[in-house]
Amino acid sequence: MLKDAEFLRLWDVYGPLLTARQREIADLYFNYDLSLGEIAEEKGVSRQSVSDCLHKCRAQLRAYEEKLGFSKALEEVSLDFSRCLTRVQNWIAAQRSEHPGWGAALDDLQDALESGAEPGIPDESGAAGDPAAGGTERGNGQGKE
C-alpha cells in the first residue's frame, strides 16, 4: 500500500480523475481523519466497502502515476526551482555587499522572489512597482551611484 504522504502527493495531482465516490471517501479518510468505521456509518455501507474503496483509490492513483509520471515530473521541477531560487538569493546577498547603491533594486527583486511577482511589474492589484498604485518604481537595478 502507498504510504499516506505518497498517497496525498498523488491525490493532489490525480485526485480529480477519481470517481466522485472515491474522492468523497478518500477526502473523509485523509483530510477529515475519519476512521473506516465512521465513514462506513456515515455512508451507510460496510467497513470493508470503505477499505476496498480506499485500496482502489491507491491502486488507481499509482496506475495514473506509472502511465503519466506527472507527479514525479512536478517534484523534479519543484526541486530545480528551489535550487535556482537559492542561487538567486545567494547572488542578491553577494551584490548587496559589492554594490551598496543597488539596495532598492535588490530589495525589489527579493520582494518579487518572495511574492512570486515580477520586479517592477504590477500584480493583479496594481501595487508591485506601480507608482500610481502606491508602489515604487525602482528602475533597471543599476542605481545612481
Automatic annotation (TrEMBL):
CDD domains: Sigma70_r4. InterPro entries: RNA_pol_sigma_r3/r4-like (IPR013324), UPF0122 (IPR007394), UPF0122_fam_protein (IPR054831), WH-like_DNA-bd_sf (IPR036388). Residues 113-145 are annotated as: Disordered. Gene3D superfamilies: Winged helix-like DNA-binding domain superfamily/Winged helix DNA-binding domain (1.10.10.10). Might take part in the signal recognition particle (SRP) pathway. This is inferred from the conservation of its genetic proximity to ftsY/ffh. May be a regulatory protein. NCBIfam families: YlxM. PANTHER family: UPF0122 PROTEIN CBO2450/CLC_2298, UPF0122 PROTEIN YLXM. Belongs to the UPF0122 family. This is Uncharacterized protein. It comes from Candidatus Scatosoma pullistercoris. The lineage of its organism: Bacteria, Bacillati, Bacillota, Clostridia, Candidatus Scatosoma.
